[in-house]
Amino acid sequence: MKNTKIILVFPLLAQALGNTDASASFQTRTLNSGHKRDACDSGGKLCELYGKLNYMQPKLNPSWQTILSDEIQKPYFKDLMKAVDEEYKNHTCFPPKELIFAAFDHCSFDHLKVVIIGQDPYHGIHEANGLCFSVNDAVKIPPSLRNIFRELNDDLGTVFLPTSGNLEHWAKQGVLLLNASLSVRMDNPNSHKHLKWATFTDAVIQKISDEKENIVFLLWGSFAKKKGSKIDRNKHLVLECGHPSPMSANQGKWFGNKHFSQTNEYLKSKGKTGIDWSIIN
Q1: Is 55 within 8 Å of 78 (Cβ atoms)?
Q2: What predicted TM-score, i.e. pTM, was given to this entire model?
Q3: Per-residue model confidence as pLDDT tens digits over 83-140
Q4: Residue 22 has what pLDDT?
Q5: Residues with Cβ < 8 Å from 271, sequence gap 6 or more?
Q6: For the chain, where are the E strands, in sequence order?
Q7: Residue of 85, 120, 154, 210 marked active site
Q8: Interior angle at CA 176, CA 125 and CA 240, nearest 5
Q9: 3-class SS at 94?
Q10: Do residues 217 and 223 lie in contact, with contact meaning Cβ atoms separated by under 8 Å?
Q11: Most Cβ neighbours (<10 Å): which of 17, 36, 227, 280?
């Protein structure tokens, strides 16, 4: 009977290991408790394999999967995925689990032009969509994003009054909208700061700096400036200013930075197409 049970386990393991569908950005690879028990009763190797599979694993855009393949195999990253899994099981967290890696889904490494660094996702219901500063359609535009749109208008001389704060249009043109932490508990900003997201996103920024050329990094506020401190400024354009939050903007640290026009001028000087900063309502 034990041999029969072992045979029944193998198709489940093959399914877990062989699922390469890239349409979902996040998945949980587990065996249910009954299969876990049978596998562990039948041999230490299967039990060990169950332990390796029993955590959430990212399903990134293929270009990022290649670049970050070594990083996501490191022990800290596996611990991070387990911790995130527990957070989502025990608390209400944002963005929805399938959107945690949305920044990578919408912006491939191959077509990357611009990196904007945020802190952590919006923590209100239905707000976060996995892109920094961005919110879902039909969600009230947050104050920081309103100031971003206002500066964009002033900089480009446009009259542009978006009704949506969804920045997917930017991401699909090669703008990586990367938060330092990719998840958060509801109504509790920076609540996942203690997890190891910072290690992962630091590695992402370093990979971009090392392996790409002529990328524009927009660092808004002291947190983003510190996060981008190791970017190679001989290879890339780094633009810095205050955060677009009302407090910072009202202190004269945001408006007038002209980052949007400077970004496009630089990209065009390198033979690249500029970003269409308008929002599709």
Answers
A1: yes
A2: 0.81
A3: 999 999 999 999 999 999 999 999 999 999 999 999 999 999 999 999 999 999 999 9
A4: 38
A5: none
A6: 26-29, 55-58, 93-94, 114-118, 175-179, 184-185, 216-220, 237-241
A7: 120
A8: 100
A9: strand
A10: no
A11: 227
